Each structure stands twice: as structure tokens, then as C-alpha cells.
């Protein structure tokens, strides 16, 4: 792909992330094109259908969260890294859940998703599980907590959170971290 084509694709994906987060299923490809500063033809040259665009946006977002989870795990002690990750994922949760809800019907294990989305979701889940296991091994998280528990709590926070509720979200994440036995 040419450099300008790759740059346009990235602009479209970034715009799609924001427009889908704001408007959900009501988001239009015209609005995404306008926000990206490209023509509608450019959008459809990169993504044949709106569903293709949704899937690519979801993959990109999951990949971004996975990279963030892996980066947080490196320099810090496991407990602090897990606490930082939980705060970050709770803040990102509403966008992630909106994107995931726009995908075709699927179960909690990702059955029914396209291969790229399934692979991105699996990589994200592995990064989250890895962070939890490191925190548990360091004695910084309850040993009986599972990745499924953490996922459920993050989904609950995501669905209950308005992006403007910074202070309330921070308190809620603190309560969740206390329940998981993770030092803040």
C-alpha cells in the first residue's frame, strides 16, 4: 500500500473510532469520511462495506489496548502495572464496548466474530490475563480472581460509565481494585 493510502486508511480508522464511539450504529460513513478529511470513495476503497469498517476499527482498537497492556507490564511492579491497566481499560471501556456491540452477534468467547477480530480479542485477553497472573504471582491481587472476573468487572464499568465521569469512574475503579486485592 502506498504511503498516502496507508495514511488515509489510518485517518479513516481514527475518525471511525471517534464517530462510532459517539453515535454507535447510527454513525454514517459520510460523517466518518468528513471527520477523516477524505472522500467517501476513499473510505469505500479501503473498506468495501460499513461492516468491514466496523471490524477494522474494532481490531485496531483492541490492538491498541493490547499494546497498552503489554507496555504497562514492562517497567512497573506487577501490582502497580495491573492497577494502571485497570484504570486505563475502564476509561477505554465505553469505546471498546460500543465497537464490540456493533459487531455481528457473538458470544462472550468471541464465537461468531471474523478471524481478525477474534485474533485481536484473543491477544487482548491474553495480555489482560498475563497482567493479572503477574500481579497474583507478586501477591498483589487475590489468587482466586480469574480473567473472566476481571473482564466482567471491566464490562460492567464500561456500560455504567459516561466518558465525562472522570472522578466517579476513578472512585469506582478504586473500589474494584480494593475488591480484587490490588494495591492502588
UniProtKB/TrEMBL annotation:
<feature type="DNA-binding region" description="H-T-H motif">
    <location>
        <begin position="28"/>
        <end position="47"/>
    </location>
</feature>
<feature type="domain" description="HTH tetR-type">
    <location>
        <begin position="6"/>
        <end position="65"/>
    </location>
</feature>
<dbReference type="InterPro" id="IPR009057">
    <property type="entry name" value="Homeodomain-like_sf"/>
</dbReference>
<keyword id="KW-0238">DNA-binding</keyword>
<keyword id="KW-0805">Transcription regulation</keyword>
<dbReference type="GO" id="GO:0003700">
    <property type="term" value="F:DNA-binding transcription factor activity"/>
</dbReference>
<keyword id="KW-0804">Transcription</keyword>
<protein>
    <submittedName>
        <fullName>AcrR family transcriptional regulator</fullName>
    </submittedName>
</protein>
<dbReference type="InterPro" id="IPR050109">
    <property type="entry name" value="HTH-type_TetR-like_transc_reg"/>
</dbReference>
<dbReference type="InterPro" id="IPR001647">
    <property type="entry name" value="HTH_TetR"/>
</dbReference>
<dbReference type="Pfam" id="PF21597">
    <property type="entry name" value="TetR_C_43"/>
</dbReference>
<dbReference type="Pfam" id="PF00440">
    <property type="entry name" value="TetR_N"/>
</dbReference>
<dbReference type="InterPro" id="IPR049445">
    <property type="entry name" value="TetR_SbtR-like_C"/>
</dbReference>
<dbReference type="InterPro" id="IPR036271">
    <property type="entry name" value="Tet_transcr_reg_TetR-rel_C_sf"/>
</dbReference>
<dbReference type="GO" id="GO:0000976">
    <property type="term" value="F:transcription cis-regulatory region binding"/>
</dbReference>
Amino acid at each position: 500500500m502506498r504511503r498516502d493510502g496507508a495514511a488515509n486508511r489510518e485517518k479513516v480508522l481514527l475518525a471511525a473510532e471517534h464517530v462510532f464511539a459517539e453515535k454507535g450504529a447510527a454513525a454514517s460513513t459520510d460523517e466518518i469520511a468528513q471527520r477523516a478529511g477524505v472522500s467517501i470513495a476513499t473510505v469505500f476503497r479501503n473498506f468495501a462495506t460499513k461492516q468491514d469498517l466496523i471490524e477494522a476499527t474494532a481490531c485496531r482498537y483492541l490492538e491498541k489496548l493490547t499494546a497498552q497492556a503489554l507496555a504497562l507490564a514492562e517497567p512497573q511492579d506487577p501490582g502497580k502495572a495491573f492497577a494502571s491497566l485497570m484504570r486505563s481499560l475502564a476509561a477505554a471501556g465505553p469505546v471498546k464496548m460500543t465497537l464490540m456491540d456493533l459487531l455481528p452477534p457473538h458470544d462472550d468467547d468471541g464465537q461468531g466474530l471474523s478471524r481478525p477480530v477474534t485474533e485481536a480479542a484473543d491477544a487482548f485477553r491474553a495480555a489482560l490475563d498475563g497482567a493479572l497472573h503477574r500481579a497474583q504471582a507478586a501477591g498483589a491481587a487475590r489468587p482466586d480472581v480469574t480473567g473472566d472476573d476481571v473482564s466482567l468487572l471491566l464490562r460492567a464499568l464500561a456500560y455504567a460509565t459516561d466518558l465525562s465521569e472522570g472522578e466517579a469512574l476513578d472512585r469506582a475503579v478504586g473500589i474494584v481494585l480494593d475488591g480484587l486485592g490490588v494495591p492502588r
